[in-house]
Amino acid sequence: MVTRAYSSLGNYYNTGRPPMKTQIESIMRSDHATGLVAFVLFVLSLIYAGMMKIRALLYQWGIFRVHKLPCKVISIGNISTGGAGKTPMTIYLAKMLTRMNFRVVILSRGYKGNYEQSCAIVSDGNKVLLDARMAGDEPCLMAHKLSDVPVIVGKNRYECGVLANQQFSPDIILLDDAFQHLRIFRNLDIVLMDFHRPLGNTHVIPRGVLREPKSHLHRAHMFILTRASQNQEHFFQIKSFVRNKPIFKCNHVPDQLMQINEAGHLSFLPTETLANQSVYAFSGIANNEDFLKILTGLQYQIVSSENFDDHHDYTNNDLKTIDAKAKNAGAKYLVTTEKDYVKICNQIHWSFPLFALSIQLSFGNDTNQFEHTIQNQVTNL
Which domains occur in the chain, in start order? Predict the structure, then answer.
């Protein structure tokens, strides 16, 4: 998105410099970038931050209307670009709330899906009705992993919420990736942040990775730090700007291997199935390096790998190239993420068995406390 918006800056670079996209991404991650492009991005970020502050005030003052749905609404979002774990968190909450006997419906934008600009039911809670091309990769993944929870996609979340209430009469609607979607009133706003770089370099896009100024975190009711470590210094630094609101730590942990079997059904295997086996890994998510670290931790022998941009739209040529590279690298198996898998598993005939590694969130020793806090919040909404 940022690359497209500022591609006109590309003339500044000669052929000896890195591509424009690489330059901008490097500046967005840097704390002390200098030069003309960094300065231009900084000025643009000031303009963007001002626009976001005005937008928030217009909603706060009632000039822009906030719509209220006839059920409880929980938003799962973040303040920065990239993958903080919103989809795994949405799945975690949907399973937990369903266990508590709440009727749950998930609303997602359906990024890059054919129905993004309209409104469509991906799953009715019994059957998956749309594939990843139609619904988008993340909603399709949620629909497959949550067989008893309806999933609806569409950019207009209020319209989708009205449809959800008409069709399914939910007790709770979960808004996936909706911290910036101020048009819908939410009873509980949960913000996820990466433990090690929760605010990036503190600049908004395009100079940094923040979707809006950090001061807007005051809207949130609860914070979850993902990919957390035992570094207490980081934890106390984060607590200093989230005030006295609840804050929890969690980690992405491997769950199981997924594979479409010969009968066309999804089967599940233990993660250790591919331990010490030669694998070719590829992914198109926001944190490709994190995926590779998880595979390495499982003792998978990665002979080669390939990273794509988040939400990458794989072509048949992409997949055939991956298959050929895996063969040349001496791999015995192909491994990708479950988000990528739902888009590509049946597109071509693979020369090797193709698996997806399923990931889940773990709150460790804080699991009971976290779930008890959510239950109390929901009960008192």
Answer: 2-60 (no CATH), 72-250+363-379 (3.40.50.300), 252-361 (3.40.50)
